[in-house]
Specification:
By secondary structure, this protein is mainly alpha-helical. It contains 15 helices and no strands. The longest helix is centred in the N-terminal third of the chain and has 14 residues.
Length: about 325
């Protein structure tokens, strides 16, 4: 995700469209396949696996705690290349990405060794969806200024989007090493590790990111997901609860806390969180699914039927759990 917004406040908790990780089992922002029936539920649909990571990866909500990556030249004696770079920055600030790319490209033509111009060009091309062109520009920025963390950070984001996993990992690691304030690259590493089933490394990366961005609720949420994958439910509950103290009205955070409570075997607490999730977001199909099945476990058949019917209305038509839920509804109605 090559984003100029790495240097400003990211859109609060926007979902990352990440159905692209190595060995990924599903994408954030979309529903993952429902889990196999849990122990004791054989033959019936089961709530989402308490270790699953459905609808969870969220963007950092906090500003990146580092300086702007491209220094804005000033003064009366700017070179032509510097003037072109200033134009590019102005266009970028107005989200005029095509004009920004053209201005930065002009700067690189005027001065082929202008690292900041290549960084800006890479960012603008990334915004235009030209990931290959962005990679070329950012690799040149790294070559010209290898000690500058933001060059590696932006390159790592583009490589992630290109699914060049090993190269992305190296670039993001370098970014975090070179810039001690860069928590976003560590958070991105956590996503990469989790989607590679390297859950211990994901936990470590998220914890390091939190040290740098301690007020970022998305990092605590993603940490909780990784801990659930390791069946470390007590720690997962703590992480998800911390996310909610920072953003109490986030439906996904309530849903994920509910999944962690279910991993602990605390069904009533899980039900309460699923209900909070659907109050905050009445379109969150996963929450209705798990809520309905847990209510059925508690013998609250009418409420279970209502929740599962809402799930059927909201779930995508290719969802793998539809038939099981229809069967469960049939049993509840009999």
């Amino acid at each position: 995700m090559n984003r100029f917004a790495r240097t400003t406040s990211l859109a609060a908790l926007a979902l990352l469209a990440l159905r692209c990780g190595p060995s990924a089992t599903g994408g954030s922002g979309t529903q993952e396949p429902l889990a196999d029936p849990a122990a004791g539920d054989a033959g019936t649909a089961a709530p989402a696996d308490a270790g699953a990571a459905a609808v969870t990866d969220v963007a950092a909500a906090s500003p990146a705690h580092r300086v702007e990556p491209i220094a804005r030249p000033s003064g009366p004696d700017l070179t032509e290349a510097q003037q072109a770079l200033v134009r590019g920055l102005n266009f970028m600030g107005a989200s005029r990405w095509g004009e920004a790319a053209a201005a930065f490209e002009q700067a690189t033509t005027l001065d082929p060794n202008y690292a900041d111009a290549f960084l800006g060009l890479g960012q603008a091309r990334g915004k235009l969806g030209d990931l290959v062109g962005a990679r070329t520009a950012l690799e040149r920025a790294v070559e010209l200024r290898p000690e500058y963390g933001p060059n590696h950070a932006e390159l790592g984001e583009v490589l992630f989007d290109l699914e060049e996993w090993d190269a992305a990992e190296r670039a993001l690691r370098d970014a975090a090493r070179l810039d001690s304030t860069d928590g976003l690259s560590l958070g991105r590493l956590g996503v990469l590790y989790r989607r590679s089933n390297r859950f211990d490394e994901a936990v470590a990366a998220y914890r390091q990111a939190i040290e740098r961005l301690p007020d970022d609720p998305g990092l605590y949420n993603n940490l909780g997901v990784a801990l659930r994958k390791l069946r470390r439910y007590d720690e997962a509950v703590e992480a998800h609860q911390h996310a909610l103290t920072l953003e109490p009205e986030n439906a996904l955070f309530h849903f994920n806390l509910g999944v962690a409570f279910r991993g602990q075997g605390q069904e009533q607490l899980a039900i309460a969180e699923y209900r909070s999730a659907v109050r905050q977001d009445p379109t969150l199909a996963d929450a209705y699914h798990d809520l309905g099945l847990l209510l059925a476990n508690q013998g609250e058949d009418d409420a279970a039927i209502e929740a599962l019917e809402l799930y059927l209305e909201l779930a995508p038509p290719d969802d793998g759990g539809l038939d099981e839920v229809r069967q469960r509804l049939s049993e509840l109605r009999d």
